[in-house]
Structure prediction request, 118 residues.
Amino acid sequence: MSETAVQPSEKKLTEQAQAALAASPSGKLVEAGVERVTDGIHTGPALSADKTYRLNLVCIGSGSAKLTFTPTSTGTATSVPCDKSVVQQRITGKKPVRINVDGSKGSTGVIAWQIDAI
Prediction:
C-alpha cells in the first residue's frame, strides 16, 4: 500500500476520533492530541497536585490499546478498545505524572486523547 493511500484514511480516522471526544463532556482543556496506535501516547502533562482531571480517550481502528499511569496511583490501568467508544478516567494530579497508551500487537488506527481540569 502506498503512503498516499494510507493518509486519507488516517485523516478520516483522526476526524472521527476528534469528533467523538468533542461529544464528551469536558472541563478546562489541559492537553489533547492524536497519535497512531502503533506510535502510542507517551505524555507527561503538567498537572497541579491534588486537583482532579478527566482523561478522555478514543481509539478508532482495529484491536485495542493499554492505558497505564506512572505513578500507578494517578489512575486505573485499563484496556481501550479501538471501536470508537470513549473511555473516561478520573485522575488526580501528582508531580510528575506519566500517561502511556500502547497499542496491542497488530492493532491499527488512531488514538485521540484530551485531559480536562474538572
Remarks:
- The helical segments are 3-22.
